[in-house]
TrEMBL record:
A GO term, aspect molecular function: ATP hydrolysis activity
Alphabetized PROSITE patterns for the sequence: ABC_TRANSPORTER_1, ABC_TRANSPORTER_2
Entries under SMART domains matching the protein: AAA
Tagged with keyword Iron-sulfur: no
Keywords annotated in UniProt: ATP-binding, Nucleotide-binding, Transport
Organism listed in the record: Anaerosalibacter massiliensis
Family statement: Belongs to the ABC transporter superfamily.
Lineage: Bacteria, Bacillati, Bacillota, Tissierellia, Tissierellales
Protein known as: ATP-binding cassette domain-containing protein
The ABC transporter domain, residue ranges: 86-320
Keyword tRNA processing applies: no
């Protein structure tokens, strides 16, 4: 429920995105907030001069309380269910491919945490992501159970397509639709009922182009995007448009996009991110990594300080490789000086 704390801590723009109906409250109270979208409601109210406050009998405290009450009443009236917030995700142990119990009791992942999943090809990394996506309840081949906020997810949540708890970026992206990038994003924005559609679409394309090598534009047909470009578009789309609190990523390394930027974009909000990867940089960028062996979770390792130092070195090496890649792409010849 909206209380004064929320109202005072987020900007008017965010508030309007969350509760579009409050525009009526502003007009009923003759408050013109234009130009103050980046401020909080309190900041907006405080901008009035003493004369204005007197002339229009502005009572800041009353207006803030009034807004809070208005939001709560409207939520009740409209029957809106506020998005369930996810504070934690817990994996309860199942079995490996031989039916042996996994080497842990439970793993708890809190919001804002990034966890990588490592293990040989075919060991069961994608299976673990699928268990989470499906919110397994001892009903998948691994026998694992997934808890959200320490509880088993009720059926309503589990099988409802609107209440998307999980956003999945999968290995295969088959676009069969005959749409331009703009049409695709527009459809998606409409299905999420965002208010400022064009602005959101512009932000997504900008973020996607920031990740991909060769720029594309809104008029480009989805089907003519390269693998890396469509991956970049999906990542930007998930980060900006999806409100899912849990993001599952299956391999972003092969797409030729800037992995670090992609990850930063995805974790900028308070999401839980799990990513299966064979890439040492991505594996070490996580706070913890789950090691999978023969279908079971073998252990969980916390990324230690020495590894964080290794990561810095690896990133430097990666930049060298990246610049070689760019030179080769641009038809240049390499020389040994780049290795120094
Ligand atoms: N605990 C388990 N019990 C039974 N089958 C399992 C278990 N874990 C994984 N599998 C099965 O093993 C197969 C390979 O697993 P998966 O595709 O998850 O591997 P992966 O680690 O993602 O491989 P890659 O690195 O090649 O993407 C799948 O068919 C999966 O369903």
């Amino acid at each position: 429920m909206a209380d004064n704390r929320i109202i005072n801590s987020i900007t008017l723009k965010e508030l309007l995105e969350k509760y579009p109906f409050i525009i009526n409250y502003f007009s009923n109270n003759k408050l013109d907030i234009e130009g103050f979208e980046g401020n909080t409601f309190e900041e907006y109210l405080n901008h009035f001069s003493e004369e204005e406050i007197e002339e229009w009998a502005i009572d800041t405290k009353k207006l803030i309380e009034g807004l809070s009450e208005y939001i709560n009443q409207m939520i009740e009236f409209l029957g809106i269910k506020e998005e369930k917030s996810v504070e934690s995700l817990t994996i309860l142990a199942g079995r490996d491919k031989n039916g042996k119990k996994e080497g842990f009791e439970e793993i708890k992942i809190n919001s804002g945490e990034i966890v990588s999943i490592v293990g040989p090809t075919g060991s069961g990394k994608s299976r673990l992501l699928a268990d989470i996506e499906w919110a397994a309840q001892n009903d998948t081949p691994t026998g694992r159970t997934i808890l959200i906020n320490n509880e088993i997810l009720d059926k309503k949540w589990r099988f409802s397509s609107n209440n998307k708890l999980v956003a999945q970026l999968s290995q295969n992206m088959n676009f069969v639709m005959d749409l331009t990038v703009h049409e695709f994003l527009e459809l998606h924005a409409q299905s999420r009922m965002v208010e400022n559609e064009e602005e959101v679409i512009k932000n997504i394309i900008e973020a996607a182009n920031n990740l991909a090598g060769e720029k594309f534009n809104l008029g480009t047909p989805i089907t003519s995007l390269s693998g890396g470009q469509s991956r970049a578009l999906m990542i930007a789309d998930t980060a900006i448009l999806s409100s899912s609190p849990i993001v599952l990523i299956d391999e972003i390394e092969n797409a030729g996009i800037d992995r670090k930027k992609a990850l930063n974009l995805l974790v900028s909000s308070d999401k839980i991110v799990l990513m299966a990867t064979h890439d040492p940089i991505l594996a070490l960028m996580a706070d913890r990594r789950i090691v999978i062996k023969n279908g079971g979770i073998d252990k969980i390792i916390k990324t230690n300080n020495e590894e964080k130092e290794v990561l810095l070195k690896l990133e430097k090496m990666d930049r060298t490789i990246q610049s070689m890649r760019n030179s080769l792409r641009n038809g240049e010849e390499l020389n040994k000086s780049i290795l120094k």
